[in-house]
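Changelog entry: the sn-glycerol-3-phosphate transport system permease protein UgpA record was regenerated in this release. Current contents:
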Amino acid sequence: MEKRAHISGWTLPLLLILPQMAITVIFFYWPASQAIWQSFLREDAFGLASEFVGFENYAALFEQPEYYRAMVTTAIFSSLVAFFSLSCALLLATQADKSIRGGHAFKTLLIWPYAVAPAIAGVLWIFMFHPTLGTLARPIRAAGIDWNPMLNGTHAMILLVLSATWKHISYNFLFFLAGLQAIPRSVIEAGAIDGAGPMRRFWTIVFPLLSPTTFFLLVVTVVYVFFETFGIIDAVTGGGPAGQTTTLVYKVYADGRLGGDLGGSAAQSVILMVIVIALTAIQFRYVERKVQY
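Regenerated structure tokens:
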């Protein structure tokens, strides 16, 4: 006979979820509420004096052409990083899922980049592609390409996309590999018996079964690009050249920490939070419809 454990009362369940609730309130809800309140204030650079100004910070923000340019830059940057990190991770996962000699070593090496801090990842890539010192920049310049991410905005964006994609591929690879290994081999073998080739089996059998994993990684990757790439941007380009790689999250830092506009920076963080929440809601509303559970 199956035995089940029953918990009487609400004291033990409350104690079990209390640590997570405390972490969420202290490190998310409290800072978010402080940012919302601060967005309605005008403060000095040291935060010693403040004045309630209502929505003036928001109005001034949407009058800045630089803010709209940061929005466009963020859209381009996030789209490229999401596409390349997901597609490259899926390709690597499908190859690693095959029975090959030394497969465990390859899987371990592919996961290692996730342990690298964003700022360190940015420093590694700027050392490789520095226009004068980079080991990989020299053959590019020798081929006749005037490679200079310090002065060329397109080159700087390419370098950012490469470093941010490389940093996040390991995370996506890990989940894609787990999803592939969870697919029953009998289903794939049945497709092969029916005469389906490798590509057809992948797109008609494997990829639809990976749709829950793909949807989850799409949401996580969007959040990663909007927030966690700050360290990479700061280390590689610092928002330059001439602000051409300044994303929304980096502009929050540049205006608040470097520019001393604490109220305007708080307003930007609130808008950024709303954008990410809206994008996540849209993904759950429309993209999840195509997910096959």
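The beta strands are 41-43, 50-52.
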